[in-house]
Amino acid sequence: VKKIAVLTSGGDSQGMNAAVRAVVRSGLFHGLEVYAVQRGYAGLINDDIRQMDLRSVGDIIQRGGTILQTARCKEFMTPEGQQLGADNLRKRGIDGLVVIGGDGSYQGANKLSKLGIKTMGLPGTIDNDIPFTDLTIGFDTAVSIVVDAINKLRDTMSSHERSSVVEVMGRHCGDIALYAGLASGAETILVPEVPYDLDEVAQRMAGNFEQGKRHSIVLVAEGVGKGEDIANEITKRNGIEPRVTVLGHIQRGGAPTHNDRILASNLGDFAVRKLIEGDSGKACGIIKGELTVTDIDTVVHSKKEFNLELYELAKRLSQ
Ligand code: F6P
Question: Member of which family (predicted)?
Answer without folding.
Answer: Belongs to the phosphofructokinase type A (PFKA) family. ATP-dependent PFK group I subfamily. Prokaryotic clade 'B1' sub-subfamily.
